[in-house]
Amino acid sequence: MKKITFTLPAEALGTATEAFLLGDFNEWNLDKGISLSVQPDGSLAASVDLEPGKTYEYRFLLNNGTWINDWAAEQYAHNAAFGIENSVISVPAEVAQEKAAVKKAKAPKKEAKVNKETVAAEPKAKAKKETKAAVGKDDLTRIEGIGSKIAKLLEADGINTFAALGKATGKTLKAVLEAAGPKFQLHDPASWPKQAKLAAAGKWDELAALQEKLVGGK
User: Fold this and answer.
1) 97 and 123 both lie in a single domain
2) Which pLDDT value is given to residue 113?
3) What is the pTM for the complete model shown?
């Protein structure tokens, strides 16, 4: 089994005071729900032992009766029976990782001729590029419906701040998702610009109130 930690930012609670983790791993049974504990930084977290090589769907249930998704989920899956989207996590297979590690360890080392001038210049160029990319960048996963993978897609398209996302049109966002493949086309970005404008303005309470009404960003 592999220990996986699930987290929620404090602002995700809204008016609630507690959150419980439910999913395929506990049969979506509230009696088996896992309570998230408050961390030193104010966020909430809970750890679960999951079987490697398997994919699980899950959500969080707040003690005010509201269901919310993981803001940083790997992806989301549409549940046709309830007309909602669930958060999804795939646990890497340990065997595959071990084989890759052994293969890498056995691989012969190749010596290559190195241009000293190129080596000296590369760290500076890389540092400059990374610094430029980090300036003004916002955590887009705080927007309901955007996970880490979708955030990377948006950043690759030049949308890496709340302000930029707030100005984006639904057509533009839909095009980014459609270009990324079928599994991203199920997402509905209609509410993302509205959420982003609240985040850009620092209106976190209003954002939390809006997100309580959303399911997977809808």
Assistant:
1) no
2) 52
3) 0.46
